[in-house]
Structure formats: C-alpha cells, structure tokens
Amino acid sequence: MPKGRHVSTTPSEPEEAPLQGAAWLPHGYHLDPHSHAQGQIVYAAAGALATATERGTWVAPANRVTWTPPRFAHSHRFYGETDVRLLAVPLDLCGELVDHPSVFAVSPLLREALLALTDKPERRPGAHKRLLTVIVDELADAAEQSLHLPEASDDRLRAATALLHEDPARLATLAELGRSVGASERTLSRLFHAQLGMSFHRWRTTLRIHHALAHLTDGMSVTETAVVCGWSNPSSFIDAFTEIVGQTPGRYQAGLHNDRT
After folding, report:
1. 147: which residues sit within 8 A by CB, 6+ positions away?
2. d(CA 162, CA 82)
3. Could you confirm whether the keyword Iron appears in this record (predicted)?
4. CA distances from 203 to 127, 170, 206 (A)
5. What's the rounded Cα separation, in Å, for the pair 244 and 225?
6. Contact indicator for 30, 76 with CB cutoff of 8 Å
7. Which residues contact 20 (CB under 8 A, 6 or more apart)?
8. DSSP character for 55?
9. Which of 146, 179, 238, 242 is least enclosed, having the fewest CB within 10 Å?
10. What secondary structure does DSSP assign to 218-252, as a single string?
11. Could you give the CA distance from residue 219 to residue 225 in angstroms, rounded to a whole number?
C-alpha cells in the first residue's frame, strides 16, 4: 500500500493478505480478491471504498464502516484520496457480528475508537484488545446501512445488469433491456425481485448512487455528477442521494473536505 503510516501484516496462509493499520491510498486504488483467516473491519476516515464479493458490492462513504467475515473472498476499490483504516477481528469476536459482509453507520464513539486503534502503537499490554472489544460492541448494536448492490445468478439478468454497469446513465427501459438480452419485461421484473430483492428502478438507482459517491469523492460537482450518472436534473439526484445515503450530496462533499483538513 502506498503512503503507509503503519500498516502491518500477520502470519497467514499463502492466499491471504491480512493487513492492519492505516494508510493513505490514491483515487482508484484497487486490492484484488483475497480472504482472511480472521474477520476484517475497513473504515475510510476520508474518501470512500467499495467492497465486492460474490454476493454483490457494498459501498462505504466516510460515515460508514465495512465488515467482512472470515474466509469471505472480497476485493476493495478506493475513491478519492482515502485515509483507510484496517482492523483484523480475531475469531473469538467474530461471532458477535453478522455472518455476511455489511456496512454499518459510524457513531462518534466508533469513529474515535477506530482512529485511536489504528493511529497509535499499543502502550500497555492488552490495550488494543480492550479497544477492539469496544469497536465490536458498537458494531453489534449498530444498524446495517448497506448501500448494497446485489448481483444475479440468472444469465439473462446478469446480461441486463452488465449493460447498466457499463453505462449507469443508460436510459433504457426494462422492456428495452429485455429485448437486448432475450427476455421479456415481465421475466426481468420477476428476476429483479426474486434474485436481487428489489425492483429494477431501485437497483439502477443504487448503482447510480455507487457511481455518484465515487465522482463526488473525486471532486466532481453535484450538477456534473447528476448528469454523468443519468439524472435529468440535480434536484431529483439530490432527493435520491439523500434517501439512500442519509445526507445531501453537498453535505457529503463538505464532510469529505472537513475529514481531509
């Protein structure tokens, strides 16, 4: 990792890449699929990150933290100049958290504990273990806020979502996508609900929000982001972003600036 402050590794099996500590990563930095014998918490104190698994992609802006259980293959991509904090969670604590990848809201206490644990060397034996227990307790009580974009197993649905991944601003209707992949509108609608747990409109909106977070984190204006991601006007983008992320895109960008300074 570039610009490392004190990222450390621990002994592991060859296929794993366990990391713990803090580092500044450039926009677009990518970690290939890997797994860990322990659980992993990743927090972007500034910037944003996306965690991808076979179950889909989770995005975490600076007010959220990601959790990946042990032995769960995953990759990361970072957006904006990212102050990334990584924590390994021992197996004896993993049972306190959900058994699937997720994203949680970051409370003030959780944020300070994450920063303290990754900023400073351990001064007293057991201090880091005690602080990690506080972090796990906070996550166990936090509500999941996943910004999760699930992926399909059906070939027709995968082909349709691939077209949208290639161009999130694509204005195609569900019927038009169906004609492109050889499926009826009704079939695709059923598959979105059955395999992805949401409507076509909701899935595409979430996909666009994922891309919007990346653009905003990299410094693109709210208006430009709205256009690039497929919204016809900034106000509808602001409404959608606020509903899913929990704050306006302008406030999100202001928070990024504050985190960096």
Report:
1. 58, 59, 60, 64, 103, 206, 209, 210, 244, 245
2. 27
3. no
4. 43, 13, 5
5. 16
6. yes
7. 7, 8, 9, 10, 86, 87, 88, 118
8. T
9. 179
10. TT--HHHHHHHTT-SSHHHHHHHHHHHHSS-HHHH
11. 10
Q: How is residue 261 written in tokens?
A: 């300074």
Phi-psi region of 246 (alpha: psi -120 to 50; beta: other; left: phi over 0): left
Q: How confident is the model at residue 17 (pLDDT cuts 50, 70, 90)?
A: very low
Question: What does the pLDDT look like over 41-88, one tens digit per residue?
Answer: 999 988 889 999 888 898 888 788 999 999 999 999 998 889 999 999
Contacts of residue 87, defined as CB under 8 A and 6 or more positions apart, other chains included, come to: 20, 40, 41, 42, 43, 114, 117, 118, 132, 135
Q: Which domains does the chain have, with CATH numbers?
A: 21-148 (2.60.120.810), 152-260 (1.10.10.60)
> Is the C-alpha dihedral spanning 212, 224, 161, 200 positive or negative?
positive
pLDDT: which is higher, 243 or 256 = 243
As given in the structure block, the two tokens for residue 260 are: 């960096």
Q: Which two tokens stand for residue 216?
A: 């905003």
What is the spatial distance between Cα 19 and Cα 74, in angstroms, rounded to a whole number?
A: 14
What the block records as the tokens of 66 is 């990601």
